[in-house]
Amino acid sequence: MDVKLDKWHKCQVDLEVLKELSKKSDLKGFQHVLVFFGLLIITGLFAYIFWGTVWGFFWILIYGNIYCFANPLWHETGHKTAFKSNYLNEFFYYLSCYMACFEPVRWKHSHFIHHGNTYSTENPFDHEIEYGNNLKKTFPNLLREIIPFGNLLFLKKDITFEIIKHSLGIETKVMKDCIPDKVKNKSILISRIYVIIWLSLIIFSIYINSLLPVMYFVLPHFYGKTLHKLVAFTQHAGLARNIKDHRLTSREMYLNPILSFLYWKMEYHLTHHMFPTVPSYNLDKLHHHIKDQLPRTNTGLIDAYKEIIPAILRQSKEEGYYFKKKLPQFDRVF
Amino acid sequence: MPKIIYNTHDNNTHTIEVQNGLTVMEGAVQNDIPGIDADCGGGMACATCHVYVDENWMQKLPQKDDGEEDMLDMAFEPKKNSRLSCQIIVSDELDGLVVNIPSKQS
To answer: Chain B: nearest CA to A130, how far in angstroms?
Structure first.
């Protein structure tokens, strides 16, 4: 688990501004999770009321797509920036890990490597870039993720299967590469707890003869990932690999306020990688301080995918290719 | 292998053998020592691997560069003996190095 110490490029920003923007707040964190879980309760309730009709299908799909935005909550609490108080970060970290089907020990350590070695396909390999290893399959992998139940059909490729393997004590490549020996048993134990929860919910669903318990708490990962995956895929897709410059490996993008809220403003992904201790609710402010030093910010999802789709299709034939971001201050590309 | 002594804020001491070439931060992360977050993974883009180096060891460490100094300015309660543990590379000369981990990182 070596960390390459060559320094990443960092934009110039006034230290006082950075200090101010790095301040965390329990209140802002609470506002966010209250709205998020409030939306889940409301949409879940509508799904319950209309279950068995077309509208039930509609509401469960909305519920699942919101549920899968637990992933950015995992991320924000993992960085301990969602709340000021660590116990709140810790509580919501474990909760959102379950919701995102992320085993907390594995993802804590793989995320540590992701930040130190963003989009690295060399040693150490960045396991969080699920498409980085086999560029030939990026596009089909994306489709598998965004089509409801696509991952269930190819379960062996899904992260739930990794949890099942860990629960059986099988040492996967990601466990070998990322998880320190001292905490491997903890990772195995939590994987087993996840599997027990899933099995209990499946048995409960069969017992009460209703799909709803699994639709609420097990299957959103399989049917509700479309929106989150479409947004999160933009973070690094098609960009440079194995370069220690976030401006070339990460994408900055504007999003509409609803998606931006659900996504904890991770559309400012380059800014986040450069300054990971700035809470999400200040990332847009920091972005405006440094945007002149960044490549052009994508204007939205469509604009981002205009870069991504041709790039990943070309990468499937030409692995060395990547979309070259133009750096403003030197007016050059790498 | 050199031994690094990590004193955590809860008054526990962890004596860990850390491979030459790794950093004091990596030694902590790999051994699940509480109190070192290392949010940026070692890129010196945060101050969440902040430690207080035992005064007796301060002179034996390489000087801080400007970037580290700036980041330490962002750390929780920085002192004269504050360092970013991601910038301290372990070697035989640092066998027995003592670092104290602050009560929180940010």
So the answer is: 19
For chain B, the distance separating the N- and C-terminal CA atoms, rounded to the nearest angstrom, is 31
Q: Where are the domains positioned within chain B?
A: 3-100
Q: Is residue A248 part of a domain?
A: yes
Looking at residue B90, its amino acid is: V
User: Does the residue A201 lie in any domain?
Assistant: yes
Least CB-CB distance to A15: which of B26, B30, B73? B73
At residue A112's C-alpha, the angle toward residues A265 and A258, to 5°, is 15
Domain B3-100 has CATH 3.10.20.30: yes
From the list B25, B32, B44, which residue is nearest A180 (CB)?
Answer: B32
Confidence check on the interface: ipTM exceeds 0.85, yes or no? no
CB contacts of B38 in chain A (<8 Å) are 112
Q: Is residue A256 part of a domain?
A: yes
Q: Which domain holds residue A210?
A: 15-333
pLDDT in tens, A233-268: 999 999 999 888 999 999 999 999 999 999 999 999
**Which SS3 state, helix, strand or coil, does residue A31 take?**
helix
How far is B57 from B62, CA to CA, in rounded Å? 11
On the question of pLDDT at B22 being above 80, the answer is yes
A-chain CB neighbours of B44 within 8 Å are 7-8
pLDDT at A334 over 70: no
Model-wide pTM > 0.95: no
How much is the average pLDDT of B7-21? 94
Distance from CA of A260 to the nearest CA of B (A): 22
What phi and psi, each to the nearest 5 degrees, are found at residue B83?
A: -145, 160
Contact B41 A180 (CB under 8 A): no
Q: What is the pLDDT of residues B71-99, one digit of tens each?
A: 998 898 999 999 999 999 999 999 999 99
Q: Examine residue A130 and state whether it is found in any structural domain, yes or no.
A: yes
Domain count of chain A? 1
Whether residue A2 has pLDDT greater than 50 = no
Q: Using DSSP, how many helices (H) and how many strands (E) does chain B show?
A: 2, 5
H-only helix segments in chain A? 15-21, 26-50, 54-67, 70-78, 86-99, 104-116, 138-146, 150-153, 159-167, 173-178, 181-208, 212-217, 220-223, 226-232, 246-249, 257-262, 269-274, 283-290, 301-315
